[in-house]
Amino acid sequence: MHPTTVEVEASLQLVAPDSVTLPVRSSLRYDPTDPYAVHVLFHPDGGSGDPVGWSFARDLLVSGLNEATGIGDVRVWPWSTPHGEVVALALSSPDGNALFEVPRAILVRFLRRTFAAVPTGEESRYLDVDAAVGRLLGPTPRPE
């Protein structure tokens, strides 16, 4: 039996430059066929359109629960706010930067479920290396 995908709906808080926070409908996703990564999907208002996704190492989130971690495009650190304990998630791209607050309790529950699906050290058992190599070496789509 293969483990199932773990997905948790969450309202992340976008921290605006004036320190005001705005709720953003999001979900945290873990697919055992991509066992080293977690995905954050940001859902546009009204549910129309495709979600915008970020993927990064599951271990980065785990480390970020207790200490500042990450460099470059994704950084994570614990953060206390007047509303409780959160984890800061800073995302950077050529299009801009965004800082989000993720409720720590939601993140801990999500990570526990991912480790129940694929325990630490067992990730390689869930990789389909042949399929990954096939995608890398397969035909490249031609531009239209």
UniProtKB/TrEMBL annotation:
Pfam families: SsgA (PF04686). Belongs to the SsgA family. One of its GO terms (cellular component) is cell septum. The lineage of its organism: Bacteria, Bacillati, Actinomycetota, Actinomycetes, Micromonosporales. This is Sporulation-specific cell division protein SsgB. Its main location: other. Keywords: Cell cycle, Cell division, Septation, Sporulation. The keyword Disulfide bond does not apply. It is found in: Cell septum. InterPro entries: SsgB (IPR006776), SsgB_sf (IPR038658). One of its GO terms (biological process) is division septum assembly.
